[in-house]
Structures are given as structure tokens and as C-alpha cells.
């Protein structure tokens, strides 16, 4: 047993996960890996597809989507490092016919590529540590092979195979692309690392299976045929493996029920989990949640932003700043919950010299800042909306978006006090020289501007668009999230019509019904209900606002 060969580390990591209170069983993923191992035995009619071609598997997902847990699960199930029957016997995989046959019966080389040597300042230090550790493991486990520290690791592994041909290895390689995020790594170093992986894995008789994870797809990193043996499985591009990363609705339902049982005073609603952490899309069409954030919110009994940054690759503005002029207007639409068309190429993130909007959005999809569905990108949930919001309030280079977001608190206060003059003054700021004309072609584009001028309201309200309320659909409805004595707001937009006409529609179609209790129910919202009409005249370039109280707080009390 060693640091990489049949290491006890993945077993310890996975046992901790499997025994945690909000663990979700993803061991069905092992079906896919065993199919790759036994392909030639169990699928004789399709040997090429199920056999060697699938023995090289690379799964890429954004951070915090369970890649490391899946890698430790695979290594701890197959590897000889430690008996894991007590853990896996109670999980879904134990029902498989092949379960006992593969449990802790393989030599597994588990390398977490995100571990660095002490005071590492060069690629040489990094890769030397990996090779030295693996060579030491092999020399210790196979003393008759006379392996030395001067050997190449693939030569050492071939020596083992020649002397003991029944000995083969499963490779579990976690965070394969980690080294590409280090500032000291040059283009020459990246090419050397690709060559290292190719020499270690490609066409090697000692290789039984390779399961590799990372954020960046390997496509376009390999300049030729170095790593073309891998089948890549990305979130947006491949259905296989999609259900094993991220939490589905059914899985969140399952752990939410447990949360209600084990938490003495549950403070989180199921709808809050959906609003905060849902919104990603797999190739199979299933919506998935950010699992790390869901688990932390339940453990802390609090919904909040658990998206942590670990460097410039995590900073949203790092990408936006590559071409502010091209992405600014699309950003305004996405902030207003309007998806924008984009051509996503998942390998675009491999280059930090991003220039076009599609390259920038492609990188942001790969890193999990945007979701991609049906040819459009969007901000997936409130957790990321807040991250984008932080950026809007700090970056003057965003022009009119920055100015509108900065004035959003004033806009909310003016609305509550029915100060229509201030509301109209703030909206007029949209007409500086940076404002794109296309933002006012219709009510849909006007809505993106309105969402920005009420940006600060996101801290107090759940803002929904086109909510089915009363007799029709309303443009915006503001639901108080925590203070149910706060004002409820219904907002209707009109282009080339009057604000009074917008108010009349709110009243005629009874949009306020959503805030009112049913027969025999106590009122949930006890503050005022405000009807807000906003109109824009494309000929005069003027805004008009009006505010009317539909229900006062005393109406609910008495």
C-alpha cells in the first residue's frame, strides 16, 4: 500500500462522505465503470464500443459538482488499500451481480493532481513529486522488479507487467487540469504534462481502466493524438454520467425530508433551495442543483451564498473584462432573467486569451457561472445572481449597468414612498450615450432595464416575471422573502402607452390576488400592496411612473 498505489486516502474520504447526514447515494455510477472493465465479456456483440474505447473516461464538470467524491468512490470501491464492504454493503451498488467480484480486488493508482509540493514554484517540482511518489510505491509493492527513482514511471509499470503479467492497474486521476491554473506554468509545461499523461496511459498493457476528472475538457489541449484515446463526458455535451453529478429534484426532496426530521428548528423552505441552488442543465435535459451549496445550507440551517473563490479563475469579472463592450448588453438581459443566445464551445476555457462573447460565455459555462440550455446562456440561480450583483456594484467599466445598479436602492425607496419624480429621473439615466437602442425595442427589453433599477430589491424580495396572477400575467411581482409586513409590489410595463393604463390592467385583472389569503386562511403578507405602472414613449424618449396603494396594512388587520 502506498501514497498513490492502493492508497487508504480515497477510502477514508469516501467513508466520511457516505456517513454524512446529507449523503446522496451515487454508487450507480459504478455500473458505467464496470461495463468498461467487463465490456468484452458481457457485450460480445459490441466489443469495440464497450471495450477498449471506453476504458479511457474523462468526466468534466464545474467546481463543487461532486467530481472528487465520485473519484474517491471509484478508487475506494475497486482499490485494495482498505476493505470497504462495511460502507458499500448498505449502498445501491451492493445489489449488483458483479458487486463482490470487483469490491477491493483491483490495483488502483489514485492521483489527486490538485496536491502541490511544499513551496512549489515550478512545473518540474510538481511533476517530480508525482513521479517520485509513484515510483516509491511500485518499488515497495513489487520489490523484485528493482525499480529505481531514475526510471520513468511508465517504464517501471511495464517492468511490473512483464514480470507479473496478471498485475494490471486502474487509474483514478482527480482534477487532471489543476496544474493549468497555476501562474508559474508555461505553455511548454502544459505540453510536457500532456506528454506525461500520454506516455503513462496510452496503449499501455498494464492499464485496466482510466477514470479521470477535471473542469476543462481535454479537447483542443492535445495538439495531436496524445490524448485522443479518451471519451470525454461534459455537462452540456454528453448524456452519459450526467445523473451522477449535481443533485436532481428527487435527490434534493430526499435530503430535505431528512433535514426536516433531524433539524430541531428548520428555517429553510424547499422552494428556497430551488430558488438559490437549482438552474443548471444537463445534456439529458434534467435540471440539477449545486450539491455543495445545498448540503452546506442544510447543515447551517440557512440559505446563503456558499460559492467560494480560490483565485482569478473564479472571478466573474475576469471573464467579463475580456470584452466588456461585447458582453455588457447581454449581461443586462441575463441579470433580468432573460436567456441570451450563444454558441458554446466547451474547450474555449482552455485559453485565457478569450476575446469574443461566445468564447467568454463558453468559459463561464465550463466554470459553472452560467448555465446552457437550448442554445442560450443564463444565470442559473440566486446564488450566482448575487455574485453577478456584487460585480455590478463594483465595476464602473460596465457603464449604464453599473449606474443603474448603484441607484437601485434609491429606486426602491422612491417606489415605496410613491415619489414618481425620482423614479422617472433614475430611469432617464438609461439614456446616456452608452445605452443600446435595442434595449427599448419592446416591453421585454424594457424589462431588463427595470430589473436593473430594482436590483437592490433582490435582497428583500423574490422577484418573479410573468407570474400567473389573477386574470392574466403580470410583468413583475415582488414577494417579501422574510419580512412579511413589508410592502408587496406589482409592477406592469408599457411601451408607447401610459402608466395609468398599466395601473388599470393591474386592477382589472386582479393581479393582487396572489397576495391575498384563501377562505379561512390567515394572511401571509400583511403589508401594503402597491401597484406600480412604468411606461416609456419611444417618440419622446420619456418615462412615466405612477404608484397606487391597492391594499393598506390596516386592511389585513381589520
Number of helices: 22
Radius of gyration: 28 Å
In spatial order, strands of the major sheet run: 2-3-4-1-5
List low-confidence stretches: 40-53
Main sheet properties: 5 strands, parallel
Primary descriptors:
22 helices, Rossmann fold, alpha/beta, 3 domains, 5-stranded mixed sheet, 558 residues, 5-stranded parallel sheet, 15% strand, single chain
Could you give the topology of this structure?
Layout: H1 9-18, H2 30-42, H3 47-50, E1 56-60, H4 67-78, H5 85-88, H6 99-102, E2 107-112, H7 123-141, H8 153-163, E3 169-174, H9 187-201, E4 207-214, E5 231-233, H10 249-262, H11 270-277, E6 280-281, E7 287-288, H12 291-300, H13 316-320, H14 324-335, E8 340-341, H15 357-366, E9 371-373, E10 376-378, H16 382-392, H17 400-406, H18 408-416, H19 420-428, H20 443-453, E11 461-468, E12 473-480, E13 488-495, H21 499-508, E14 529-537, E15 542-551, H22 553-557
Parallel strand pairs: 1-4, 1-5, 2-3, 3-4, 13-14
Antiparallel strand pairs: 6-7, 8-10, 9-10, 11-12, 12-13, 14-15
Helix pairs in contact: 1-4, 7-8, 14-20, 18-19
Account of the 3D structure:
The protein is elongated. It folds into three domains: 9-244, Rossmann fold (3-Layer(aba) Sandwich), CATH 3.40.50; 249-300, no CATH class; 399-557, no CATH class. The protein is of the alpha/beta class. Strands 2-3-4-1-5 form a five-stranded parallel beta sheet, with helices on one face. Residues 40-53 have low confidence and may be disordered. It has helices at residues 9-18, 30-42, 47-50, 67-78, 85-88, 99-102, 123-141, 153-163, 187-201, 249-262, 270-277, 291-300, 316-320, 324-335, 357-366, 382-392, 400-406, 408-416, 420-428, 443-453, 499-508, 553-557, and strands at residues 56-60, 107-112, 169-174, 207-214, 231-233, 280-281, 287-288, 340-341, 371-373, 376-378, 461-468, 473-480, 488-495, 529-537, 542-551. The chain starts with 8 loop residues before the first helix and ends with a helix. Helix content is 38%, strand content 15%.
Amino acid at each position: 500500500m502506498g501514497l498513490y498505489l492502493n492508497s487508504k486516502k480515497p477510502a477514508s474520504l469516501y467513508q466520511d462522505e457516505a456517513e454524512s447526514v446529507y449523503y446522496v447515494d451515487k454508487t450507480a455510477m459504478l455500473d458505467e465503470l464496470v461495463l468498461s472493465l467487463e465490456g468484452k465479456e458481457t457485450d460480445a456483440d459490441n466489443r469495440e464500443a464497450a471495450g477498449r474505447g471506453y476504458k479511457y473516461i474523462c468526466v468534466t464538470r464545474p467546481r463543487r459538482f461532486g467530481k472528487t467524491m465520485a473519484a474517491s468512490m471509484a478508487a475506494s470501491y475497486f482499490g485494495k488499500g482498505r476493505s470497504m464492504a462495511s460502507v458499500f454493503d448498505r449502498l445501491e451498488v451492493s445489489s449488483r451481480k458483479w458487486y463482490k467480484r470487483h469490491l477491493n480486488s483491483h490495483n488502483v493508482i489514485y492521483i489527486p493532481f490538485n496536491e502541490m509540493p511544499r513551496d512549489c514554484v515550478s512545473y518540474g517540482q510538481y511533476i517530480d513529486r508525482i513521479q517520485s511518489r509513484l515510483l516509491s510505491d511500485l518499488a515497495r509493492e513489487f520489490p523484485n522488479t528493482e525499480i529505481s527513482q531514475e526510471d520513468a514511471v511508465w517504464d517501471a509499470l511495464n517492468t511490473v507487467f512483464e514480470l507479473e503479467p496478471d498485475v494490471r492497474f486502474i487509474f483514478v486521476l482527480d482534477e487532471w487540469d489543476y496544474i493549468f491554473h497555476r501562474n508559474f506554468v508555461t505553455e511548454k509545461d502544459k505540453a510536457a504534462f500532456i506528454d506525461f499523461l500520454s506516455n503513462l496511459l496510452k496503449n499501455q498493457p498494464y492499464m485496466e481502466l482510466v477514470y479521470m476528472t477535471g473542469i476543462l475538457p481535454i479537447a483542443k489541449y492535445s495538439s495531436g493524438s496524445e490524448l485522443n484515446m479518451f471519451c470525454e463526458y461534459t455537462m452540456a455535451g454528453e448524456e452519459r454520467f450526467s445523473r451522477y453529478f449535481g443533485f436532481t429534484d428527487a435527490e434534493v426532496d430526499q435530503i430535505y425530508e431528512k433535514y426536516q426530521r433531524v433539524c430541531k428548528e428548520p428555517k429553510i423552505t424547499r422552494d428556497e433551495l430551488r430558488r438559490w441552488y437549482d438552474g443548471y442543465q444537463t445534456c439529458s435535459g434534467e435540471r440539477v442543483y449545486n450539491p455543495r451549496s445545498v448540503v452546506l445550507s442544510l447543515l447551517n440551517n440557512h440559505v446563503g451564498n456558499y460559492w467560494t473563490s480560490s483565485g482569478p479563475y473564479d472571478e466573474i469579472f475576469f471573464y467579463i473584462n475580456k470584452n466588456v463592450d461585447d458582453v455588457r448588453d447581454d449581461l443586462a438581459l441575463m441579470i433580468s432573467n432573460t436567456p441570451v443566445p450563444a454558441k458554446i464551445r466547451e474547450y474555449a476555457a482552455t485559453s485565457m486569451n478569450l476575446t469574443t462573447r461566445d468564447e467568454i460565455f463558453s468559459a463561464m459555462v465550463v466554470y459553472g457561472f452560467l448555465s446552457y440550455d437550448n442554445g442560450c446562456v443564463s444565470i442559473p440561480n440566486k446564488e450566482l445572481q448575487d455574485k453577478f450583483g456584487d460585480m455590478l456594484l463594483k465595476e464602473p467599466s460596465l457603464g449604464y449597468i453599473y449606474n443603474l445598479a448603484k441607484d437601485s436602492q434609491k429606486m426602491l425607496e422612491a417606489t415605496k414612498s410613491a415619489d414618481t419624480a425620482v423614479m422617472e429621473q433614475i430611469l432617464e439615466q438609461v439614456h446616456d450615450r452608452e445605452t443600446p437602442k435595442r434595449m427599448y425595442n419592446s416591453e421585454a427589453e424594457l424589462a431588463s432595464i427595470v430589473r436593473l433599477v430594482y436590483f437592490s430589491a433582490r435582497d428583500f424580495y423574490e422577484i418573479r416575471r410573468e407570474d400567473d396572477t389573477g386574470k392574466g400575467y403580470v410583468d413583475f411581482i415582488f414577494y417579501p422573502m422574510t419580512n412579511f409586513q413589508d410592502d408587496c409590489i406589482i409592477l406592469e410595463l408599457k411601451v408607447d402607452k401610459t402608466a395609468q393604463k398599466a395601473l388599470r390592467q393591474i386592477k382589472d385583472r386582479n393581479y393582487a390576488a396572489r397576495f391575498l389569503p384563501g377562505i379561512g386562511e390567515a394572511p401571509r403578507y400583511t403589508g401594503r400592496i402597491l401597484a406600480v405602472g412604468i411606461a416609456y414613449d419611444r417618440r419622446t424618449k420619456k418615462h412615466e411612473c405612477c404608484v397606487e396603494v391597492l391594499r393598506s396594512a390596516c386592511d389585513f388587520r381589520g
